[in-house]
Amino acid sequence: MRTSTALAVAFGLAALTACKQNPQNNAADNVEANAENVAENITANAENEAENIQAQAANEAAAVKNEGENKAEAVKSAAENKASALKNSASNSTDNSTSNATDKKKH
């Protein structure tokens, strides 16, 4: 009986010392937990900011690309219009020359 009583008392004391922490330990645990939470928040904010910067850069790159494509298309259209105008002008000159030559032969 003595042994079992001694063991029960030993277990009881061990349990009490495990449950009891001094106030400094509690404060230290709280400081550590708060620091970990702040660090996690900072990391999450940095990741969000990085994603926003990447999205903004992608949007700006797409806008520059679209602007370049639009300018290139405008240059192509202007060249096609000029070529058509020159073609029509040359065709009209040829038609007028042919008409004038025919008119001269008739007289």
Structural class: mainly alpha
The residue ranges in which pLDDT falls below 50 over 5 or more consecutive positions are none
Instruction: Name the helicity range.
Output: over 70%
- Biggest β-sheet, characterized? none
Task: Report Rg.
Answer: 45 Å
- Secondary-structure element string: HH
Distance between the termini: 150 Å
Which labels suit this protein?
107 residues, mainly alpha, 95% helix, 0% strand
Q: Would you give an account of this structure?
A:
By secondary structure, the protein is mainly alpha-helical. The protein has two helices and no strands. The model has no long low-confidence stretch (mean pLDDT 82).
List the helices and strands and how they pair.
Layout: H1 2-19, H2 23-106
Brief characterization of the structure:
The chain is mainly alpha-helical and 107 residues long. 95% of the residues lie in helices and 0% in strands. The mean pLDDT is 82.
